[in-house]
Every structure is written in C-alpha cells, then in structure tokens.
Amino acid sequence: MSKRDYYEVLGVGRDASEREIKKAYKKLAMKFHPDRNPGDAKAEASFKEAKEAYEILTDADKKAAYDQFGHAGVDPNRGGGGGHGDFGDIFGDVFGDIFGGGRRGGQRQAQRGSDLRYNMELSLEEAVRGVSKEIRIPTLTECEVCDGSGAKKGSKAETCGTCHGQGQVQMRQGFFAVQQPCPTCNGRGKIIKEPCNKCHGHGRYEKSKTLSVKIPAGVDSGDRVRLSGEGEAGEFGAPAGDLYVQVHVQEHPIFQRDGNNLYCEVPISFTNAALGGEIEVPTLDGKVKLKIPAETQTGRMFRMRGKGVKSVRSHAVGDLICKVLVETPVKLNDKQKELLEEFEASLNGGKHCHRPKAEGFFDGVKKFFDDLTK
Questions:
Q1: Distance CA 254, CA 187 (A)
Q2: Burial of 235 per CB tally in 10 Å (0-12, 13-18, 19+)
Q3: In 3-state terms, what secondary structure has residue 114?
Q4: 76 to 92, 218, 352: CA distances (angstroms)
Q5: How far apart are CA 108 and CA 179, in angstroms?
Q6: Of 103, 104, 244, 268, whose Cβ has the fewest other Cβ atoms within 10 Å?
Q7: 74, pLDDT greater than 90
Q8: Which residue positions form the known binding site for Zn(2+)?
Q9: Integer Cα distance of 79 and 251 in angstroms
Q10: DSSP states of 283-304 as a string?
Q11: Angle CA 149–155–159, to nearest 5
Q12: Number of Cβ atoms within 10 Å of the Cβ of 155
C-alpha cells in the first residue's frame, strides 16, 4: 500500500511554516492517540502516519529531500515511521514545548558566547572628563584556522551515527519515551572526526586580547560600558558574547560626589569667618575665588553653580557645594594668648551678644533645669 502525501496527512499546504505543521500535528495527535482510542487499530495507524509526516516535515534536510524526491528521498529507517513509531513519543512531541522540552529530533543549537565583565578603576577626574584606556582580557576567541567549525582544514563535520543527525536519542522509561541529548555528539547532530589542530575541535581557544575602551564623560560607580561582540566567541561559529566594562570611581582626597554635585570642606581662619574676606577654593577646572561674608559660622554651605559634574545621560551640569569649617588657632605663643584673653574680655563686657548660638543654647539649658525643679 502506497503512503499518502505527508502534507495531505497533516492537512497543510506545501508552503506551510514549521509552526503551522506543528499545530496541525498536535491536533491530529490529540485526536488519534491510542490512549484516547483504546483498541482502535485505525486510530493507531492514523497516529503513526501523522507522527511520521511531522518528523519528516520538521527536519530541514529531510523536508528538502522529500519535497524534491517524495517518499523515495527519505530513508524509512531514519524517518521515524512504520515499526519505529512509539506511543509514548506523543508526550515529548506534543507536550514538550508546553513544559519546557524541545521537539523530538531537535538539534542543540550552537551556543552564543558568554558575556564577560571587566572591572575598571577610575579616578574622579577621569570619570568626570572621560578617558580612553587600553585593557587586556583573557577570553575564548574563534579559531582562525578552521573559522570556528572545529574541523581540520579541508574536512567537515559528519552526521552523527548514533542519533542520525537528530541531536537527541529516545530512552524508554516504562510507558513513557523520554528524549535526551545524544551522548555521542552532545546534541549537535554532527561528529568532528578530524579536529582542527589549533582548537582541537572546539572551534575556539583561549587567548588574551587588548582592547581600547572609551569611557564617556560623567560616568559614576556602577555604570557599565558595553562592547558588543567582544565577549567569548560562540560555539562552532555562533555569535560572540559582549564585554561589559564595570566602572568603579576611586575616593578623592578633596571632593565627594553625589550624583552630579560635588562636595568639599574648606577650612577658613577665625579672622576670615569673623570679618569676611575672599578665599581660593579648588574645583576640577582649577582654583576659583569664593567670597566669605562677615560673621560666617562653621558648617555654612556655599553653592558654586556649574562647577560640578556633567551628567553622562542628560548632559545637565551639577554644582560644587563648599562647606566652610572655622579653624581654632593652635600652638599660640604667650603674646597671642594674651591678645585673645583681652579680646574675650572685650566681648563679655559689651552690650551686645557676640555669640548668637551660645545665647540660645544656654537659654534652653536654663529652661530645662527650671522645668525639672517644678
């Protein structure tokens, strides 16, 4: 008895996509599966017929041979039909995609190369202004001798004799048939009998390479710069992964960074704080003048607009915020101590309070103890 056309069996056209073929097969498999039709020989035959058609039409090589030569172009011993049909296969074929499994006969795709990470230490000046740096990284590089195929020059990979190029083998577990990657070819469906002398059949080898990395101005700790295709080479010619340069900005002896703003502490003398004056403060672009008003208290903040960091994303420029710290004179000689004592006496004898915070503090202390004694 001659076999029916596979496209006719599944009820699809010759231009049907793999998705349409799979959908048609699932519908027929659910309808004719022997578990749903116990003792029905006709349903069993329809199930095997649909399964055979599905396995041929979802294998690119077999489909091409079938489309050109019909049933004569497909080896019946490898087609999965006739005596090779297995009722348990339906659980891998129909339900495999739903529960995370692959379809029967699906070869393991060559894996994209792994992404790599490189930690780069930058000074604050480098992070703010941007910098280009050369880095050296160890990685897996595509073999230039075999162009990533893993096969010796002049040879090529051959179809695996264990799985016949399917990449998977079937293992019986009671009623069920479980699909597993082929142990001979590790799921590739092909065997390299003459491996490349350079990469020993892996298609890639370990090598250190030097790259120039351009760090944009305004980056901060935690930012990453992505270098597409500079990670590990993929398996057997698959695309390479990416390289991520992770930025860490070192602590600065003068400035602290918070987003786009910079902060620094500026010491000023007792005299400057009391009488006012002009001092020089550092910025990333050099020194600038800062006017200190008279009677400035320690801890006061001064904002210098546009002297911070230019954002790497919005290009907005932050500010420099200076916190002044009034320094207490040290290592005084006798004459200086005498002058300070005279100065202190003149303050205490005046009619006006020269210590605004002290007045408020001691008033609060007095009230506190008065409340305790009530």
A1: 59
A2: buried
A3: coil
A4: 21, 66, 111
A5: 12
A6: 244
A7: no
A8: 143, 146, 160, 163, 182, 185, 196, 199
A9: 67
A10: ETTEEEEEEEPTTPPTT-EEEE
A11: 75
A12: 14
Q: Which helix (H) or strand (E) holds 190?
A: strand 190-191
Please report the pLDDT score of residue 245 as a whole number: 93
Residue 137 near residue 118, CB atoms below 8 Å: yes
Q: What is the pTM of this model?
A: 0.58
CA gap 275, 357 in Å, rounded: 18
* DSSP track, 305-328: TT-S-B-TTT--B--EEEEEEEPP
Q: How far apart are CA 163 and CA 165, in angstroms?
A: 5
Structure tokens at 96: 């495999």
Beta bridge partner(s), residue 245: 118, 225
Give every CB contact of residue 83 below 8 A, 6+ residues apart in sequence: none
Q: Which segments of 10-68 are extended strands (E)?
A: none
* CA-wise closest residue to 225 among 114, 122, 112, 111: 122
pLDDT, tens only, 98-156? 333 344 445 566 678 888 999 999 999 999 999 999 999 888 888 888 888 888 888 88
99 phi and psi, to 5 degrees? Answer: -100, 20
Give me 220's structure tokens: 């901060």
**For the chain, what is the mean pLDDT?**
82
Whether the CA torsion 8, 9, 11, 16 is positive or negative: it is negative
Taking CA atoms, 307 is separated from 215, 247, 264, 282, in Å, by 21, 22, 12, 10
Known binding-site positions: 143, 146, 160, 163, 182, 185, 196, 199
3-state secondary structure of 267: strand
Q: How many residues does the chain have?
A: 374
